[in-house]
């Protein structure tokens, strides 16, 4: 359900040459660069990087960084990296220096599949020669840290694992760990929300509503706090619908004054080949305007054009 597909009749060397020519001489042909890169799939872009290296003995990403600037450069460079390396770079930036971008950690770790998490851990190791878990542990604390570590294992049960007895038990355990307890047993929340399959958890949430009379989200807001609460809510949202989670993140990134460009870039790049069509559909229904239109009103220049190409169409 992606908006970006493999380009038919793809020729890596030809594309590498076209990019080389677009960057040759004084100034660069940004239009040509963005048209080419946004109409190739990630796999194809990686091949273009390799062809560029063997034709010109230069690093395409380094050349693009040199030629382009600002948000447009960030977007294009992000598109050139394999997804796991893109995630690794985002996380590295989120924990580098003083302060932590918790929202970025939450978004990536709450929404990725087991396989994507394994790929991310390996890419991080390869790119930075560091252990992702150790870096996250060093940069976060408390229950927030514990849940991130659980998610980093990438050991969520697969969707065909559902047992009715366990659904009732889990719902009861969550109720007893939160609403029915003086204080909260966070470990129960971490265990159940971090390990069970999505299919199973959807049933647990239905059962929870039945026995407690309130949605699990409301209990989480009442029982947990801070980044841990935000992380758990993100996990619940992704379990219910990943597309809806991202539609909401995109809307929040653009509404009001100023745009959270890093969030916008990260989501448009990471979902363009996975579920952009679903995200657009949910966005249209939920906010009564198309994602395409909102991007159009909120951004400008080549940056806007590239984002609109990734969006892949208007649903108005």
UniProtKB/TrEMBL annotation:
It holds the Pfam family Annexin. One of its GO terms (molecular function) is phosphatidylserine binding. The keyword Nucleus applies. It comes from the Eukaryota. Gene3D superfamilies: Annexin. Keywords: Annexin, Calcium, Calcium/phospholipid-binding, Cell projection, Cilium, Cytoplasm, Nucleus, Phospholipase A2 inhibitor, Repeat. GO terms for cellular component: basolateral plasma membrane; calcium channel complex; cilium; melanosome; mitochondrion; nucleus; vesicle membrane. The keyword Nucleus applies. GO terms for biological process: animal organ development; apoptotic signaling pathway; cell differentiation; mitochondrial calcium ion homeostasis; negative regulation of sequestering of calcium ion; tissue development. It is found in: Basolateral cell membrane; Cell projection, Cilium; Cytoplasm; Melanosome. Its main location: membrane. SMART domains: ANX (SM00335). InterPro entries: Annexin, Annexin_repeat, Annexin_repeat_CS, Annexin_sf, ANX6. Calcium/phospholipid-binding protein which promotes membrane fusion and is involved in exocytosis. This protein regulates phospholipase A2 activity. It seems to bind from two to four calcium ions with high affinity. May associate with CD21. May regulate the release of Ca(2+) from intracellular stores. Belongs to the annexin family. A pair of annexin repeats may form one binding site for calcium and phospholipid. PANTHER family: ANNEXIN, ANNEXIN A6. This is Annexin.
